[in-house]
Write a structure and sequence with these properties.
The complex is a heterodimer of chains A (623) and B (73). Chain A is α+β, with helices and mostly antiparallel strands. Chain A has helices at residues 17-27, 48-71, 88-135, 154-167, 194-203, 220-248, 252-273, 293-303, 336-339, 353-368, 371-387, 393-415, 422-427, 439-469, 473-496, 505-523, 527-539, 542-563, 568-602, and strands at 5-13, 31-33, 141-148, 172-177, 183-190, 207-208, 276-277, 281-289, 309-313, 323-324, 612-613. In chain A, the strands form three sheets. In chain A, strands 1, 2, 7, 8 and 9 form a five-stranded antiparallel β-sheet that branches. A four-stranded antiparallel β-sheet of chain A has the order 4-5-3-6, with helices on both faces. Chain A has a two-stranded parallel sheet with strand order 10-11. Helix content of chain B is 86%, strand content 0%. Chain B is built from three helices and no strands. In chain B, helix 1 packs antiparallel against helix 2 (43-51) and helix 1 runs antiparallel to helix 3. The chains are: A alpha+beta (623), B mainly alpha (73).
Chain lengths: 623, 73
C-alpha cells in the first residue's frame, strides 16, 4: 500500500530557523517542499556569507570525493559522530593535500604500467637475443633489429644474399619467430658499414624495430640491457606505490566523516532556500507520513522550543503531489523490487505490490511446476539469502526466489512432476490434477491459464475502477463496463461451448449489445479497440501453458536421452547437464514472461506511474 | 499421406511465427542494447519489449499443438 502522507507546515521566529533545520535533519521525517507563495512571505534565499560558505563547501566536497575515489577500496564508513565544531580548515587542507598526492600516485602508477606494457612488447625479442646482449656485443659492431611480417619469410634469403654481396659475409644474422607469426632478425655488422647497411635495409623494404620512447637515441646494444633491467625494476616501484597508497588510505575514514558533515551542511543550506520568510518569521513546508506527524510536533517543541509551531495543511490546499512511500507487510515486501522496476505509482493510486506478491509466484509455479526444479530453486534462494545483507536487492531477490520455489513445488506435486517424468519412474508419483504430458490435459491446462488470465485482467480493471473513482468518474465507469463486458463475453463463450446452459447465450448477447453503446459513450470511439485488446491480453496468458509444456517436455527429453546413452555414467552426466540447462531456462523464461504479464496485461488496466520519490530531509548517508 | 500434411501444418504454425519473432527481436535487440548503453534504467522496458514478440511464437506453439491434438497426433 501507499503510505498516507500529511503536509506539515512549520512556523517559527526567523532566528530559530537554523536550529529547526538541524533538528529536522536529525529527525529525518520531512520531505521538504517549497511553501505556497503568500504576499507577506519572501521565498528562501542565502545571504552573501552563506553563498560564500556554500562555494567553499562544494570545492572541499569535490576534493574529498576525488581523493576518496582515487584512494579506491571499500567505501569507508564515516566516524561515529561529527565533532560539534567541524575543523573546516584542517579538513580542507587535508582533502586538498590528499587529492594532489593521490593524483600524483595515480599518474605515476599509470606511467609505470604503460612503461611495463610497452617494454613487455619487446620482451619476446629480448628473451630471444637477451643472452647475446648481456654477454656484450664486441666494440665496433652495430646491431639492428628487423621484423619480417607474417608471410614475408622469403625476404630473409633475399636480404641474406644482398648482405653477402655488399659486406662480403662480414656480418652475423640471427632470426627468431614470434608468437604472432612475424620473424624478428638481429643483424650485427661492423660500424664502418652501418650507412651502407641502413640503405640496403631501406631498399629491401624490411621494417626496423623502433626502440621505445626514452631509448630512441641509443644503440641497440646499450638499450636492450637497460630495458631488461627496467622491466625487472618496475614491479618493485609499483609495490612501493601500493604501500604508499595503503598508508594514505588511513586518512580515508577522516575524509569520509568530512564528506558526511559537508553534505549535511550543504543540505541545510538547501533547506534555507526552501524556507519562506517574513521580516521576523519563517515558514517551512514538507511531506511526512501521517503516523510520524505527532512525533514531529513533540520533538520540535522539545528540542527547539514552544515558539516553533507545526500545523497540518488541509488536503484541499495541497499545491503539489505528495511523495510516495510503499509500505507492505513483511511477506509482500520483497516484491516491491519488481514494482520498483517501473516508475513509482502516483500518490492516491493503488500500489500493486500485494497482487504481484500473489500472482507472480503463482504464474512462475504454474509454468515450471516441478518438485525437483522447485527444490533446486529453493536451495538457490536459501544460499542467496544467507549470502545477502538485510534490506538489499539480493535479499529481496532471494526471498522472491523462495516464494516462487514454494509454488513450483506445490504445482509439481499437483502435476506429478519431479525432474519431468523421473518421479513417476522412480517413486511412482502420480498427477493429482493435471498430467501435462497428456494432450487432453494440456487443453485443460490451456483453459485454466486463460481463465486465470480472465481473473487477473478483470481484477486489473476492477482496480482501475477503484483508482479512477475519486478523480475520473467517467473513466471509472468505462473500466467497470469493460470488466462486465469481458465477463459477459467469457460467459457467452462458455455457453457456446455448452459449459454453461446454452439458453443463456441469447440473454448474454443482448446484454452485450446493450452495454456496448454505453461503453462507447463512457470511453469514446477507441472503446471497441480497447475491448478487443483486453480480450487479446487474456489470451496472452496462454503463454503460461506454452512455457509450462515446453519445460516439462524438455525435462522428459533429458530423461529419455540420458536413458538412451548406453552407459550409466554417461547417462547420468548427460541427464544432469540437460536438466541444468532446463533449470536455467526455467529460471529465465518464466521470470520474463511472468513480469510481462504483470507489467503489460495487469498494470495496463490501472497502474498510474509518475509518483514522486519520498526523500526526507535527513543526514547524508552513502547509497 | 495425411500424417505428412498434419505434421507440416503444425510445423508451419510454429515455424512462421518463430521466424517473425526472430526478425522482430533482431530489430529490437540492437536498439535495446544501444538504449541500455545510454540509459541503464530502461532495462525493465527493454525486457518487456523483448518479450512482446515472443507472443507470436507462443500462440504459434498453441495452434501447432491444437493441430496435432485435433488430428489425434
Amino acid at each position: 500500500m501507499i503510505l498516507r502522507m500529511s503536509r506539515a507546515r512549520v512556523l517559527g521566529p526567523r532566528a530559530a530557523l537554523p536550529r529547526t533545520l538541524e533538528v529536522l535533519q536529525d529527525l529525518g521525517f520531512l520531505h521538504l517542499s517549497a511553501p505556497a507563495s503568500a504576499p507577506a512571505l519572501a521565498p528562501g534565499s542565502l545571504s552573501p556569507r552563506e553563498l560564500r560558505l556554500e562555494r567553499q563547501l562544494r570545492r572541499m566536497l569535490d576534493d574529498v570525493e576525488t581523493a576518496l575515489a582515487q584512494l579506491g577500496g571499500k567505501e569507508p564508513a564515516p566516524g561515529p559522530s561529527p565533532p560539534p565544531a567541524p575543523p573546516w580548515t584542517a579538513w580542507a587542507r587535508s582533502a586538498r593535500r590528499t587529492r594532489h598526492e593521490a593524483d600524483r600516485l595515480r599518474e605515476r602508477t599509470q606511467a609505470l604500467n604503460e612503461e611495463r606494457a610497452l617494454l613487455a612488447k619487446y620482451q619476446e625479442v629480448m628473451t630471444a637475443f637477451g643472452g647475446l646482449f648481456q654477454r656484450g656485443v664486441a666494440p665496433g659492431v652495430r646491431a639492428y633489429l628487423v621484423v619480417l611480417r607474417s608471410g614475408q619469410g622469403a625476404n630473409l634469403e633475399k636480404l641474406r644474399a644482398l648482405l653477402d654481396v655488399a659486406l662480403r659475409k662480414d656480418y652475423e644474422l640471427r632470426s627468431h619467430p614470434l608468437a604472432g607469426g612475424e620473424l624478428v632478425l638481429l643483424l650485427l655488422v661492423p660500424v664502418g658499414t652501418a650507412a651502407h647497411v641502413e640503405r640496403l635495409l631501406a631498399e629491401s623494404a624490411v621494417e626496423q624495430v623502433p626502440l621505445p620512447r626514452g631509448y630512441e637515441g641509443q644503440s641497440l646494444t646499450d638499450a636492450v640491457p637497460r630495458m631488461v633491467q627496467r622491466l625487472h625494476a618496475i614491479p618493485g616501484e609499483l609495490a612501493e606505490l601500493d604501500a604508499l597508497r595503503a598508508r594514505m588510505s588511513e586518512r580515508a575514514a577522516g575524509l569520509a566523516l568530512a564528506r558526511a558533515v559537508i553534505q549535511d551542511r550543504l543540505a541545510r543550506l538547501d533547506g534555507l532556500r526552501l524556507a519562506a520568510s517574513s521580516a521576523h518569521a519563517f515558514v517551512l513546508e514538507g511531506w511526512i507520513p501521517t503516523t510520524n506527524l505527532p512525533d514531529l510536533v513533540g520533538r520540535l517543541a522539545e528540542r527547539v522550543g514552544p515558539e516553533v509551531a507545526v500545523e497540518e495543511v488541509a488536503a484541499e490546499q495541497w499545491t503539489a503531489e505528495a511523495p510516495v512511500v510503499l509500505q507492505n507487510p513483511r511477506l509482500f515486501r520483497p516484491f516491491q523490487l519488481l514494482v520498483g522496476m517501473l516508475p513509482l505509482p502516483r500518490y492516491g493510486t493503488i500500489d500493486p505490490t500485494p497482487f504481484v506478491a500473489i500472482f507472480f509466484p503463482l504464474f512462475f509455479g504454474l509454468m515450471v511446476g516441478d518438485v525437483g526444479y522447485g527444490l533446486l530453486l529453493f536451495g538457490t534462494g536459501l544460499v542467496l539469502r544467507w549470502r545477502s545483507i538485510p534490506a538489499s536487492r539480493l535479499r529481496a531477490v532471494s526471498e522472491i526466489a523462495i516464494g516462487c520455489a514454494l509454488f513450483t513445488v506445490i504445482f509439481g506435486v499437483l502435476f506429478g512432476e519431479f525432474f519431468g517424468d523421473l518421479g513417476r519412474r522412480w517413486f511412482g508419483m502420480r498427477p493429482l490434477v493435471l498430467d501435462r504430458e497428456e494432450p487432453r490435459d494440456i487443453v485443460s491446462f490451456l483453459g485454466l491459464c486463460v481463465a486465470l488470465g480472465l481473473v487477473h485482467v478483470v481484477l486489473g480493471l476492477a482496480l482501475g475502477v477503484a483508482s479512477a473513482f475519486r478523480g475520473h468518474r467517467r473513466q471509472a465507469v468505462g473500466r467497470g463496463l469493460s470488466a462486465v463486458m469481458i465477463l459477459l463475453i467469457a460467459a457467452a463463450l462458455l455457453a457456446v461451448l455448452k459449459v454453461l446452459p446454452h439458453a443463456l447465450l441469447t440473454p448474454l448477447v443482448v446484454a452485450l449489445l446493450v452495454l456496448f453503446p454505453l461503453l462507447v459513450v463512457a470511453e469514446g470511439l477507441v472503446a471497441p479497440v480497447e475491448l478487443l485488446s483486453t480480450v487479446g491480453n487474456i489470451l496472452s496468458y496462454a503463454r503460461i501453458m506454452a512455457l509450462g509444456t515446453a519445460s516439462v517436455m524438455l525435462a522428459v527429453v533429458a530423461n529419455r536421452l540420458a536413458g538412451a546413452a548406453g552407459s550409466l555414467v554417461v547417462g547420468i552426466v548427460f541427464g544432469l547437464l540437460f536438466h541444468l540447462v532446463n533449470f536455467l531456462l526455467a529460471l529465465f523464461s518464466p521470470t520474463i514472461h511472468g513480469l510481462r504479464l504483470h507489467y503489460v496485461e495487469f498494470f495496463g488496466r490501472f497502474y498510474s506511474p509518475g509518483g514522486v520519490q519520498y526523500r526526507p530531509f535527513r543526514h547524508w548517508r552513502t547509497t | 499421406m495425411q500424417i505428412f500434411w498434419i505434421t507440416l501444418s503444425a510445423a508451419t504454425a510454429i515455424a512462421i511465427p518463430a521466424l517473425a519473432t526472430a526478425w522482430a527481436q533482431s530489430r529490437i535487440g540492437p536498439a535495446a542494447a544501444a538504449s541500455l548503453a545510454e540509459k541503464p534504467e530502461l532495462s525493465t522496458t527493454v525486457i518487456v519489449m523483448l518479450a512482446i514478440p515472443e507472443t507470436m511464437s507462443i500462440l504459434g506453439f498453441v495452434v501447432a499443438m491444437f493441430i496435432m491434438f485435433r488430428a489425434g497426433g
